[in-house]
Amino acid sequence: MNVIDSIVTQSARIAAVRRDIHAHPELCFEEVRTADVVAQKLSEWGLPIHRGLGKTGVVATVLGRDGGASGRAIGLRADMDALPMQEFNTFAHASQHQGKMHACGHDGHTAMLLAAAQHFSRQRDFDGTVYLIFQPAEEGGGGARVMIEDGLFERFPMQAVFGMHNWPGMPMGSFAVSPGPVMASTSEFRITIHGKGGHAALPHTGIDPVLIACQMVQAFQTIISRNKKPVDAGVISVTMMHAGEASNVIPDRCELRGTARSFTTGVLDLIEKRMQQVAEHCCAAHDARCTFEFVRKYPPTVNSAAEAHFARKVMAGIVGEEQVLVQEPTMGAEDFAYMLLAKPGAYCFIGNGDGAHREMGHGGGPCTLHNPSYDFNDALIPLGATYWVKLAEEWLAQPVA
């Protein structure tokens, strides 16, 4: 691997910062301490910062050797927030906050961008400007959208923006990037079925909302298997069902909640329309009624072709062509999608390995995202930071169109 020596030299210090952030996880829009750590390091390295976009966001400006006179600018983004879940790990840097954990590696994403920032503070081998975006609230809060609404791209005008996520199961030392949709849109639904309660021994006297709910859940899957084209991806998952208080009582209502995913607006429109029709008609068939709520959250994450191909070229120069993989689209969602709606760019994966990097004291589960036994692989820090540096330098070195 062709990593930058000075970044490797400092990687242990950056890893210590990463572990400190891991030990003090903060949820969306609560990343006050994390933002303080980031801002302190950036200021220590002499980089001007702006705070407050997206409530707790931090943006650093790195001017090239021309003082930014070329007008060319690129944005590099890392997310900072943790998840509301209990950590199973017991190693020294495990979460110190009950019910909060860096189970998605945002601590590592922040560390990789900090390592790049430290390098930029010492060596600015480019003309133009690099904006380092430390974003809050990726995990459901839409922090990218809020930063944009707060004027991110007006205050820091850039021609392209790039993001990166660690990917467990991908070999350490590999990247993946592809043009087009790489992560799905996410929507949430809540359906309340209103039946008629009664004695469980006399079901004919009531209208059982639990029975209706069971039929509804099964019928939703026919939308995926029989309504949309087989080549179009889509997911409907009912993840919560709430009803009843006693074993001998038919409740008068049942609530279903869950998520729907797709890569295109057309498929999402179909899912929403058909779900509402299925819900209402399932209820009508049993003389019940329902309320149907469908909230669209993150749009699909779609890489622009030119920027994805450019990122692939940069990666190949670092790890070799054979270690730059095809980025298989995933039904997970990512609010970097909002940035890609506003600017050209690409969102890539960096291999986090199979979990063998974890120290004694890790939980018994796999090292997968959103798992209580997860931990970021610190060996990625110099590799990810090298990618950020090379990407910015080579992108800004392109001739102006």
From TrEMBL:
Database matches in InterPro entries: Amidohydrolase, Bact_exopeptidase_dim_dom, Peptidase_M20, Peptidase_M20_dimer
Peptidase M20 dimerisation domain boundaries: 188-280
Entry's transmembrane regions: none
Domain of life: Bacteria
Pfam families reported in the protein's UniProt record: M20_dimer, Peptidase_M20
Keyword flag Chloroplast: no
Keyword entries, A-Z: Hydrolase
Listed name of the protein: Amidohydrolase
Lineage summary: Bacteria, Pseudomonadati, Pseudomonadota, Betaproteobacteria, Burkholderiales
